[in-house]
Write a structure and sequence with these properties.
Blueprint (H helix, E strand, L loop, with lengths): L1 E5 L8 H4 L3 E5 L6 H4 L4 E4 L7 H4 L6 E4 L9 H6 L3 E3 L6 H15 L6 E5 L3 H12 L3 E6 L4 E2 L2 H7 L2 E4 L13 H5 L6 E4 L8 H10 L4 E4 L10 H6 L2 E2 L8 H15 L16 H6 L3 H10 L4 H6 L8
Parallel strand pairs: 1-2, 1-3, 3-4, 4-5, 6-7, 6-9, 9-10, 10-11, 11-12
Antiparallel strand pairs: 7-8
Helix pairs in contact: 5-6
Length: about 325
């Protein structure tokens, strides 16, 4: 099998070769129609846009993304052209939960506060479990899963609101000007999901008007060309690295590789069932990443690509 692999994916070099596959490693910007024309499979991340422009007339029949999200892949095109698509659901869920709770702790918000969790899938369920274990109260909003809390109730009762939904038509700008105007307790807003879930301009206005007390932003609209105004106003600001743990990256690579060749196995680590806040914070200080991004926002992409993966709790 001829496979093109995004060169920034960790732990992957040598795995396909050991099974006799022909592999080429490409930077995200080097994925183009010519470079993948004779490839049977692609292994990518979010910066590689897999659409007709990339795939028309190629031999590609499998795409595996070493990420949870799929919004960089044209699923309709792939389905119509017989291309199988695989992602890595839950791979970095513990790392994102670590980011969220370490961020909350860094703002000084004490346990006992109420966290509104919007989206209670792989990530949100761990945030909920670890938060409750450490003494936070939680409100769970996920209508597709039958969880009863409404966005209106979260707007009224939450001291912290954290988003963990996919990005689609139903979640695009779900945190908008109308939502921020409905908030009662001036909550902390956290976006470690997808940038466009939160309307950046509406959040800037909410911060200026005091409708929210602060913002923790890891996922931005328009990455890597992010809003400098929102960057300056954010309490914690990081370059889309919430899920960047050693264990999470290894899980993602293992899932992507196995999707392309089920006979290849990469050992991975289990998820901590219950993590103490002190252990969560011991392995990660979001203020250090914030200082770097605020000082040099023009290097957003380099910071992300060269990030020193942290251990999970």
């Amino acid at each position: 099998m001829r496979i093109a692999v995004e060169s920034k994916i960790p732990f992957i070099k040598g795995l396909f070769e050991s099974a006799g596959h022909e592999v080429v490693y490409l930077a995200p910007e080097d994925f183009n129609n010519a470079s993948v024309r004779d490839k049977d499979a692609l292994v990518v991340r979010t910066r590689t846009i897999c659409n007709a422009a990339l795939l028309d007339g190629t031999s590609v029949k499998k795409i595996a993304t070493a990420t949870i999200g799929l919004d960089h892949i044209d699923l309709t095109y792939c389905a119509a052209n017989g291309i199988e698509v695989y992602n890595a659901p839950g791979c970095n869920a513990p790392a994102v939960a670590q980011y969220v709770l370490a961020g909350i702790a860094a703002t000084g918000i004490k346990t006992g506060a109420t966290i509104g969790i919007v989206g209670v899938g792989n990530v949100g369920s761990i945030v909920n479990r670890w938060a409750r274990y450490n003494g936070y109260k939680t409100l769970l909003c996920d209508p597709p899963l039958g969880l009863p809390t409404s966005m209106e109730e979260i707007a009224q009762k939450a001291d912290i609101i954290t988003f963990h939904t996919p990005l689609d038509e139903s979640t695009y700008h779900m945190a908008n000007e109308q939502f921020f105007a409905s908030l009662k307790l001036r909550p902390l807003i956290i976006n470690a999901a997808r940038g466009a879930i939160v309307d950046s301009e509406a959040l800037i206005k909410a911060l200026k008007m005091g409708q929210v007390s602060g913002a923790i932003i890891d996922c931005w609209e328009g990455e890597p060309c992010i809003s400098r105004e929102l960057l300056d106003m954010a309490t914690i600001a990081t370059p889309h690295i919430a899920g960047y743990s050693l264990e999470g990256k290894r899980r993602a690579t293992a899932m992507a590789v196995k999707a392309i060749d089920p006979n290849i196995t990469l050992a991975t680590d289990s998820v901590t069932e219950y993590a103490l806040l002190e252990d969560i914070c011991r392995n990660y200080d979001p203020m250090a990443d914030t200082a770097v991004l605020k000082a040099t926002p023009e290097t957003f992409e380099a910071q992300r690509n060269n990030y020193n993966y942290r251990p999970e709790p």
